[in-house]
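cron nightly-structures :: item 1 of 1
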Amino acid sequence: MNHVHNFLEWMREEGKDPKTIVAYNPIVNKFMEWLQGNDTSIEQVKPIDVKEYLSFLRHTENKSQATINKATAGLITFFAWLVDNDIVKDNLMTRIKIQKVQASDEINKNDTMK
């Protein structure tokens, strides 16, 4: 059973914005590939696994906080769908928060000069 395909199909059926569907596709696929590389199935995922994945994005992939937040948002929706479809029992994403994005120093410097 391909959970990612079914999730994306559900998003289409629900009338989600096509841009959101296109954006969530690689987010969810990359997470599933990462799980597979760590010998973890979606049914076995714990909050620490998601935190380690987000840390992987930041420290190994050098992704910005904004990109990590997009991945988090995609996973929040994916896990809600997994719970609704009885694939997982617990929506562990309720324990994962989107982090605030800090404005760059350059923007802050420009604001103080006005």
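cron nightly-structures :: done
DSSP finds five helices and no strands in the chain.
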